[in-house]
Amino acid sequence: MIENINSAVLFIIIANVLVSMKGFSDYSFLDKYKFQVSKIISGEKIRMFTSGFLHVDWMHLGFNMYALYLFGRIVSGMLGTPYFLIIYFGSLLAGSLYSLMYHKKEPYYSAVGASGAVSGIIYSSILLYPDMSLYLFFIPLPIPGYIFGIGYLLYSIYGMKKQLGNVGHAAHLGGAMGGFATTLILYPSLISTNKLMVILLAVPIVFLLIFGDKLKSL
């Protein structure tokens, strides 16, 4: 299992585990580096990156790292380490920026998690390998990767609207947008070779860009 993982993916997983463990046992550390609107607006921009290495609990961390392991191998294997890192950190930044924009009138809004970056990697891997199928824990039948990606995004929209838990659902959406855009910029031939998949994955993103501000009033 480990021998098949790219070193950059492994490094990011280890970094997430170590930083999250520190946050589990030291609330002041978590509070200092989590995503919080008022702190970021006042100048602590570093939180837009550090919050992506913190998690609320082991389940939150485990789910994100398992998804990163599954999908990160595809992106790093097909595009190489430099492009993988560009997509990962580009998606992390895009997730934080979208979250900041969406919650800009909520100074005490806070969240943690690598979900924005992982969402970008998921979207990137589906663009690169549209024929992938996934077996989830409690579903015995294979699920097409694009169905998982769109479903993940729809769940994030619901979570963002309901503000479920201390998880950055808005970051999921921003990260998916970042991964989608960055992958197409780095690998533009996908627009012609995987045109249908590009359109399918673009639909929920375009919907969000047009109607995202109206979600809170629904």
UniProtKB/TrEMBL annotation:
SUPFAM superfamilies: Rhomboid-like. The keyword Transmembrane helix applies. It is found in: Membrane. The chain crosses the membrane at residues 6-25, 83-101, 108-129, 135-158, 170-190, 196-212. One of its GO terms (molecular function) is serine-type endopeptidase activity. One of its GO terms (cellular component) is membrane. Gene3D superfamilies: Rhomboid-like. It comes from the Bacteria. This is Rhomboid family intramembrane serine protease. The lineage of its organism: Bacteria, Pseudomonadati, Bacteroidota, Flavobacteriia, Flavobacteriales.
